Amino acid sequence: MAKSHVTTSINGQPQEFLCEPGDTLLDVLRNDLNLTGTKEGCGSGDCGACSVTLNGRLVCSCLVLGVEVEGAEVGTIEGVSTGDGLHVIQEKFLEHAALQCGICTPGLIVSAKALLEENPNPTEEEARYYLAGNLCRCTGYDKIIKAVMDSAETLRGVA
Amino acid sequence: MVSVVYEAPDSIEGAISLLANADIPAKILAGGTDLIIQTNGSADESRLFVDVKRIDGMLDARLSADGLDLGPSMSCAEFTARDDIRKVFPGLVEAAYLIGSTQVQGRASLGGNLCNSSPAADTVPALVVNGAQCVIAGPGGERTVAAEEFMTGVGRNCMEKGELLKIIHLPTPAAKTSDAYLRFIPRTEMDIAVAGAGVSVTLDDDGTCTAARVAIGAVAPTVLLVSAAADALIGTKLDDDALQAAAAAASAASSPITDRRGTAEYRRQIVGVLVKRAARIAATRAKGN
Hey, what domains does chain A have and what are their CATH numbers? Predict the structure, then answer.
């Protein structure tokens, strides 16, 4: 079957790719575009390791087809750092040792960034609910939440 | 591996034509949070996906004096962010907020929740108690089906080949009317309802209930509108006896199964408790309207 041609924007850069109509956005990012920062965990929308933004909304890239992003704006972990260095959230994850094996980390950082863009001053409870779709089997979440809350303070300019 | 054929028509007519003329199993793609997983596990050799999100109006919600006209494919994230809708239908917005994770809500839609027709679909009891009408377009024209008539079995609904859900219409609630939806899950987030209950009540100036609708989920093959439970509330001040009677009516109407998330006996009991609690919340809200 002929591959589909898709024109989209990834991390602010125009991007074209060819994919099978059944390929997920996750397949395309990792296998065709070599954007392997986005991880595959469950492949069924439960774990959040493949979190990306689609037109500004947080989604699981395993539940989006590559062909669906025609004309859309996709944001991945590769677009989080600015070029001058790490994003505040990335620095805080390091500072708080908020990762162990690291598979959940790109998804959590993309999700935390989406959270803080929507709600710059979340309560801990709001942060925990927002990030409930990002599973981490190592840390027990406490250090992740500390890193996110600390990031929020820093980004608000209060710390 | 299912071979997928993908089409994204920009009109209702285009979608109907693709669906009606498909010679392989055809599926409507909205948010895809159920469809993509179901396709991965499917024995079909090939499937046609008709992506309806590029059709005008599918992703919009318009609130007017007539009520809410909801584009079936609008994501739950867009829907729950609408403060104007939350003011009028707080229970429905809460139900949409319970579906899956933030990520799933970024794609999943109320129309998709309805068309997937799971008995545990959280938004369906809330749609039913608000008197939602589903406008279905097909080769023979349009027809309108009440939300409580839409589902016909587990994963089954009234839509025929070639048809698609065009709009969900919710009438403007009467004065001093409000809704609530509650579900029970074993954890605090990211789970499927063991039982769910939606309630809408209308009160008069004395606080007497003059109209009510009660719908229950995950306790029968489809979401059920339980008129006996509503009748137990109407004419009362929603005192404990009335709430208990409504709970008993909801439990009696249920026909739950036992599975790993709960026993039939437990579901039957808990659905009554949820009706009681949701009725109290809806009444508190209605007093404020």
Answer: 4-79 (3.10.20.30), 88-156 (1.10.150.120)
Q: Tell which of B148, B171, B194 closes a domain.
A: B171
Q: A22 CA to chain B: closest CA distance, Å?
A: 5
Encoding tokens for residue B14?
Answer: 């285009």
Instruction: Report helix, strand or coil for B202.
Output: strand
- Which CATH number covers residue B258? 3.30.390.50
SS3 for B150?
helix
- Packed helices A142-156 and A88-95: angle between N→C axes, nearest 10 degrees: 140
Same structural domain for residues B158 and B65?
yes
Per-residue pLDDT of chain B (289 residues; tens, 9 = 90+): 899 999 999 999 999 999 999 999 999 999 999 999 999 999 999 999 999 999 999 999 999 999 999 999 999 999 999 999 999 999 999 999 999 999 999 999 999 999 999 999 999 999 999 999 999 999 999 999 999 999 999 999 999 999 999 999 999 999 999 999 999 998 878 889 999 999 999 999 999 999 999 999 999 999 999 999 999 999 999 999 999 999 999 999 999 999 998 999 999 999 999 999 999 999 999 998 8
Name the residue in chain B with its Cα closest to that of A110.
Answer: B103
H/E element, B278 = helix B264-288
Could you say which of A46, A64, A111 has the minimum Cβ distance to residue B32? A64
The parent domain of residue B262 ranges over 177-288
Any chain A CB within 8 A of the CB of B33? yes
Return the residue in A18, A52, A65 with the most chain B beta carbons within 10 A, the one to mutate for interface testing: A65
Q: Going by DSSP bridges, is the β-strand pair B26-29/B46-51 parallel, antiparallel, or unpaired?
A: parallel
Are residues B33 and A129, on separate chains, in Cβ contact within 8 Å?
no
Q: Do B106 and A54 touch (CB under 8 A)?
A: yes
Domains in chain B, number: 3
Q: Is B196 on the interface with A (CB under 8 A)?
A: no
Of B283, B269, B262, whose CA–CA distance to B120 is shortest? Answer: B262
Q: Tell me if A51 and B107 make a contact (CB, 8 A cut-off).
A: no
B166 and B205 share one domain: no
